[in-house]
């Protein structure tokens, strides 16, 4: 999410002026090195993870599905955000001033808003898509096409680019004072009401509506999966077998839903709440620290997306293993040891037995 503070330095201007007048330098804050280090870790993990997602999908024909198209779009958005925004934002903490000029001030903050909005709307589109294929499996065969997924993704990008224009228009360089004269990159709206209106819009579009959409879709899927689908004439054994299989599937889906909703809440909630509080007049050192933590959590979402929405799927794990066999070589050697032969044979038998994977296509990232 866009950092809407004028700078990252706490304290009032009058105190800073008086301190500077006494010949003292700016204090060495822990944020100056800790936050950039965390951003560097986020960038490394995010670039590697998202690049692997794109590599696995583009190199395997069986992975080129509608669901994976959304995942690739999500990975591309995260890479764009990590490359174009994270390095510039990291410099705000060790450097007292913005040093990249007014054009980059507008561009970086504009891209932050665009990518954040595109990411959250793409996550919502993925949830709706998985809900549709689960609830209406036959109808989805006609309507869920790569062309439709492409049209939706392009619409998401066009909408995000247009709706984020106010960030570029009202972003500018402002003079400030923090142990000497400084230059800050900040948003300056024509009025406080317009600024608050845009912040409320961002809260709804980037956080609240996607959260409600994701939660509603997966709740509806769980409810749908809990309904029996066998005919009354089926034997009691078939009823019991299907009930046990459905219970196992619901348990796995429930864990997946909890992970998705929890990550969305943790990654995007703090910064959104802090921005709302700040927009409506709350100013404190505690809020400043909470906003830094929320800023880090929102950025970390770009590095955890590949793990949650790709590598937790069975088909992605198989394709990743096929693309990078050396990574899994140690597991193969472990299985061929004499003491593990029985476990290996049992695993093969389990894979041959029906596991109800057909009902899990919407979570396998391969449907």
Short description:
71% of the residues lie in helices and 4% in strands.
Mean pLDDT score, rounded?
75
- Give the name of the CATH superfamily: Rhodopsin 7-helix transmembrane proteins
- Reading off the top of the CATH hierarchy, the class is best stated as Mainly Alpha
* Percent of sequence in beta strands: under 5%
**In the CATH hierarchy, what is the architecture at level 2?**
Up-down Bundle
Account of the protein in words:
- This protein is mainly alpha-helical.
- The protein is 71% helix and 4% strand.
- The chain has one domain: Rhodopsin 7-helix transmembrane proteins (Rhopdopsin 7-helix transmembrane proteins), CATH 1.20.1070.
- Strands 1-2 form a two-stranded antiparallel sheet.
- The two termini are 30 Å apart.
- The N terminus and C terminus are likely disordered.
Layout: helices, strands, pairs:
Blueprint: H1 13-21, H2 31-59, H3 66-84, H4 86-90, H5 101-135, H6 137-143, H7 146-163, H8 165-170, E1 171-177, E2 181-187, H9 192-225, H10 236-279, H11 285-309, H12 314-323, H13 329-335, H14 341-352
Antiparallel strand pairs: 1-2
Helix pairs in contact: 2-3, 2-11, 2-12, 3-5, 3-7, 3-11, 5-6, 5-7, 5-9, 9-10, 10-11
Keywords:
mainly alpha; 4% strand; disordered N terminus; 14 helices; 367 residues; two-stranded antiparallel sheet; Rhopdopsin 7-helix transmembrane proteins
